[in-house]
Design goal:
Largest sheet: 5 strands, parallel
Strand order of the largest sheet: 2-1-3-4-5
Strand content: 15-25%
CATH topology: Rossmann fold
Helix content: 40-55%
Order of helices and strands: EHEHEHEHEH
CATH class: Alpha Beta
CATH architecture: 3-Layer(aba) Sandwich
Number of helices: 5
Shape: globular
CATH superfamily: Response regulator
């Protein structure tokens, strides 16, 4: 399994912090400063997860989320929203739109890693291929 994660955020400090913490956990982190570039990266790299800011150039994270969820190849990809946007309507729009988690800035990098690991694992368990072979009965 590739251990690539794409993060899209227009704040270089956030990108640096996420890259540092996830890099320590042996993830290869690719970054984009806008939603359009992030979507192109996701389509080309097929990462294990995506982290999106809500407010950024190129349509923003909610538009990128909608594009990913409408693409059959990407629809099951775990997505975490990492944003300063606290509006409850925005949170509901993201979660109803298919986001797996919503984390507010400022954030704890260790908590980010923990929550991201959980959504990656739960996604892998839900979409794992069934075991084939003989069925043993007792």
């Amino acid at each position: 399994m590739k251990r690539c994660i794409v993060i899209a955020d227009d704040d270089p400090t956030i990108i640096s912090l996420v890259k540092l913490r996830l890099g320590m956990a042996r993830y290869n982190v690719m970054s984009a400063n806008d939603a359009v570039t992030a979507l192109a990266m996701v389509q080309a790299q097929e990462p294990v997860a995506v982290i999106l800011d809500v407010q950024m150039p190129g349509g923003g994270g909610l538009a990128a989320l909608a594009n990913m969820k409408s693409d059959p190849r990407l629809s099951q990809l775990p997505v975490m929203m990492l944003t300063g946007e606290r509006n409850p309507q925005t949170v509901m729009q993201a979660m109803n739109g298919g986001a797996n988690d919503y984390m507010l800035k400022p954030f704890n990098p260790d908590l980010l890693l923990d929550r991201l690991s959980r959504i990656i694992k739960s996604s892998a368990m839900v979409w794992a291929k069934p075991v084939t072979g003989p069925v043993w009965e007792l």
